[in-house]
Design goal:
Distance between the termini: 25 Å
Structural class: mainly alpha
Number of helices: 12
Number of strands: 0
Largest sheet: none
Order of helices and strands: HHHHHHHHHHHH
Helix content: over 70%
Radius of gyration: 20 Å
Mean pLDDT: 80
Strand content: under 5%
Amino acid sequence: MPPVSERIVIWRSLMRVGFGQALAYRGQVAIFLLTALFPLVMMTVWLSVVEEVGPTAGWDRQGFISYYAVGAVVFQLTTSSIAWRWDDLVRTGELSSLLLRPVSPLTQQVGLEVGQRVLSAALLVPVLVVATIALPDLSVSGSVMNLILGVVALGGGYALTTAMALTFAMVAFWSTQSGNLYALWWGAGAFLAGWIAPVSVLPPGLRRAAAILPFRSTVGLPIELILGRLDTAQIVVGMATLAGWLAAFTVAVRVLWSRGIKRHQAVGG
């Protein structure tokens, strides 16, 4: 394993390349901006509900506006496209050339994507800060500690999303459908993640599922921490759930990688 200073240089270089790639491909930036608008569309739906029937599950007009404004940032900072990129690397044979480099292909792909997330943060976080100051209906009412925990959970949420994506990406060593499987996995979990709506407005059965499965840890947990919507017990349970799933998927990636790369080298020569 290279020394810490060398690893820092490697990660910094990969992030810089990923940042540059995200800037270079304007179509990717356009898709990013359109995706960022989706939570705002859902916000208008829930605001209409509030106007018709009043607050829902403790969420009033201000609550929904704040939730989806913060959610637009959180989703962009915790999303991952590694599963689809890895599928292309294996299918086109490009992975073989990446294996010749001194840095692991896993490290290369994660480093590039972290650089892209830095661009997302540079575009969206200042907008959220200005909007919070300028708009009276947008309020981040959590304490400084809530904000710190929210940022920690956001980093953990991205790590978990990446670990889940890499787990499904490893399936590409055995199947050509790894990207589609990951899309199905994430699509099924969108409701439970808190991307479509806050988890607390879901039916009881879905709320129980969200408390157990990993999806809420990637989106809903960071948002609700930043907004100060969770008590101490909920924070402890939420962070423990995040840590547990992150550990489980990290182990899964390591196991699947060690087995998959042996199969890839045996088949590809």
